[in-house]
Amino acid sequence: IPVEDFDLVIFGATGDLAHRKILPGLYRRYLAGQMPPDARIIGAARSELTDDGFRDETRKAIEEFAPKVDKSQLDAFLGQLSYVAIDAKGTGGWEQLKERMRDGVVRAFYFSVAPSLFGDLAQRLSEYGIADDSSRIVVEKPFGRDLESARALNATLAQHFAEKQIYRIDHYLGKETVQNLMAVRFANILFEPLWNAQFVDHVQITVSETVGVGGRGSYYDNSGAMRDMVQNHLMQLLCLTAMEPPYHFDPDAVRDEKLKVIRALEPVSETEIVRGQYQADGGDPGYIDDAENPASRTESYVALKVRISNWRWQGTPFYLRTGKKLRARTSEIVITFKEPPHSIFDESGQKANQLVIRLQPDEGMDLTVMIKEPGPGGMRLMQVPLDMSFADALGTEAADMPDAYERLIMDVIRGNQTLFMRGDEVEAAWAWADPIIKAWEEGKARPEPYDPGSSGPDEALRLMHRDNRRWREIR
Ligand code: BG6
């Protein structure tokens, strides 16, 4: 079903994110018949480019970053694109942009630029009368680097746009499984009665990556895993796993519940957080080589134990970890249930039920249950998975599932903010993360070294062992 007719301006249209995600994503929505035939995509950036020059760049980007996608309709798609060279801090290009915009269609502005330009863009859009009360702006992460800067950014945007016009992207919320987590929890009777401290022993949230930070070392070295991943992506996963049922699947109802989770987080003690930095390995550069800063104490790995101080989760810890250059690219949420209160079987072999919600690489869910080992050997127990791969279940290749970005952009056009972060949520997440980061920055300790291709520093294993638990293997 096509969305409403729109004019979408992408600021930073020649940048990496536009090339890798935004433009290929829009093309895929075009192929899916979701883009209205008159919709326009207007690239805006500093470089002097003609419309055709921008189309050529976009063609190359789509060929490179969406290699398997059908290219037969690429020319028609590119026909909907145009370009304006713009000076975010000056006057150049703004009148031209204004002339390009049509009346009576949705106007959306994607800020795929450095956060230091967000304020300038917002100001110019209102100054030149390009944005009106119904326009939408989309802002990329990082949304600030601490509570103070996030507040300042919210205040700047609020001078020109109402909260209902601001779409703060966390692309993890656009992932299929993340939304499925809400469907599984709230559209079934099976799980919710067990989804609390009485029946859940602990929760693990892992986002492990195989890539290092090479190529984006200068950004990353001022950020680190805590700011780059935990404060946003892992926090969002935590919220959706832990939140109370919203009264309706409505943007503010969902975001109110997420906010309550963040506010209920206890401060993390220093002994319950582990930071790591990957080492060099043979010819492969280590973190400090990639960051080009031999003295860097920035973490490329974090593991921590989080407690949610509310009725539902009292006594059930959430363990979070994320890192670069680890053994495999895996993102999953693992709910480990408690063991039955009493075993009636002599030979136990009993293992706790686990629900694994896989975000990556193949999206799906896995529930382990105990059954009787088949055969005449008596009552022996064994653990089997009830596996559901979404791609299998839906008969589609996983690759055909819409990417997080394309789904989120379509939500912007539809005016649906459910999967976007509200200003107060972002601030609350920084308020929780700030003391952790500050203590770290003020301290002298170096991150724990870990080997590339491993599952992180040994200290992170000990974080779990101390509680008589273990991480699910990264594979
Ligand atoms: C980004 C981070 O937000 O998410 C990157 O800045 C990280 O450092 C990326 O690699 C991970 O996203 P995905 O979708 O590949 O898991």
UniProtKB/TrEMBL annotation:
Catalytic machinery residues: H233 (proton acceptor)
Single Gene Ontology MF annotation: glucose-6-phosphate dehydrogenase activity
InterPro entries reported for this sequence: G6P_DH (IPR001282), G6P_DH_AS (IPR019796), G6P_DH_C (IPR022675), G6P_DH_NAD-bd (IPR022674), NAD(P)-bd_dom_sf (IPR036291)
Domain spans labelled Glucose-6-phosphate dehydrogenase NAD-binding: 9-180
First-level EC class: oxidoreductase
Residues that, per the record, bind NADP(+): R46, K141
UniProt cross-references to PROSITE patterns, sorted A to Z: G6P_DEHYDROGENASE
Source superkingdom: Bacteria
UniProt record, GO biological process: glucose metabolic process; pentose-phosphate shunt, oxidative branch
Pathway: Carbohydrate degradation; pentose phosphate pathway; D-ribulose 5-phosphate from D-glucose 6-phosphate (oxidative stage): step 1/3
Residues at which substrate binds: H171, K175, E209, D228, K324
Record's catalysed reaction(s): D-glucose 6-phosphate + NADP(+) = 6-phospho-D-glucono-1,5-lactone + NADPH + H(+)
Residue span(s) of domain Glucose-6-phosphate dehydrogenase C-terminal: 182-472
Pfam families membership: G6PD_C, G6PD_N
Protein role: Catalyzes the oxidation of glucose 6-phosphate to 6-phosphogluconolactone.
Family recorded in the similarity comment: Belongs to the glucose-6-phosphate dehydrogenase family.
Protein name: Glucose-6-phosphate 1-dehydrogenase
